[in-house]
Amino acid sequence: MLNNLSAWHVIIFLVYPALIALGFWLLYTVIRLAVRKGLRQHQEWLETRASLVSADH
After folding, report:
1. How many whole angstroms separate alpha carbon 34 and alpha carbon 40?
2. Alpha-carbon Rg for the chain in angstroms
3. What sign does the CA torsion over 37, 40, 42, 44 have?
4. Which residues are within 8 A (CB) of 10 and not within 5 positions of it... i.e. 6 or more apart?
5. What is the tens place of the pLDDT at every residue in 21-35?
6. Which pTM value belongs to this model?
7. What is the 3-class SS of the chain, one letter each residue?
């Protein structure tokens, strides 16, 4: 099967899936960092809220 492929076909066969995988990895990394930042901000908001509530009582 691979005997009939030219060098360009082999390069495309290897590079194209690698680029797709790299794109998915970058997307995963960006989403993971955004979720972590959001959770951190939410935790800070909860702590601020809890300190305000405990200061009132």
Report:
1. 10
2. 24
3. negative
4. 2
5. 999 999 999 999 999
6. 0.67
7. CHHHCCHHHHHHHHHHHHHHHHHHHHHHHHHHHHHHHHHHHHHHHHHHHHHHHHHHC
